[in-house]
Amino acid sequence: MTAANKPGPIEITHAFSGMALVLKSYFAQFILIGLALFLPLIAIAGTVDGGYEVLSNVDVDGYWIYGFLVPVILMFVMSAPLSYASLAVLEGRRLSFGQLLFGSARFVIPVLIASLITTVLALTGIMLLFVPGLVIMTLLAVTIPAVIAEDIGPIHALKRSYQLVTGNAWRVFALIMCYFLPSLLFDSLLPEMDALYYALTIVGFDIIVMTFEAPLTAATYLLLVNARGGLANKDLATIFE
Fold first, then answer.
1. What are the backbone angles phi and psi of residue 150, rounded to the nearest 5°?
2. Which pTM was predicted?
3. How far is CA 232 from CA 141, 159, 207, in A?
């Protein structure tokens, strides 16, 4: 990397300021999107063998579908409209709820694919030696906003995230830990409770985490882009037209 294109350091506080700006406009809508995605899962879980235990007990048949795979996919789907809206606010736009949903719809599949690839790579690294997983999480942290803001495919977005994060990896790692560590610790700190209440608590926490994670990641992405010379406003604006 030459001195000419070496990125300057990003300000972590600016990422939080961007997140706060987004949440001021869309906090309620983000929560509503999360509830619309996850409440049907809880309702369906109550009708299958094992009941609500399939959402929390690894020893119950169906857990790996209802308690792991489906929630993970729903989180990925949720990240598309939340990231889309976050980029809109940070670009100076205010979308209606309908515009938010319809405008982000075309990004759901590429975001889902990119998220699956990122998660598989990160989990593989964590299971092998843990630290490589954290490195992968950091380098691929802004893949989702890259998919949306630059309207590129999943593989290209992975490479773009690596390019953007390089030079600011420690700062991005610190931002990731703001939502990764609470997610890691939350489940272990929960007291014993009824399976339904447990499921509702976990789902509620996951929705809150994504509500904060998506705008923080979008703000981080734009800071990284600006650190490398910026992204033309017309390029970002076209995704909202």
1. -105, 0
2. 0.91
3. 22, 20, 32
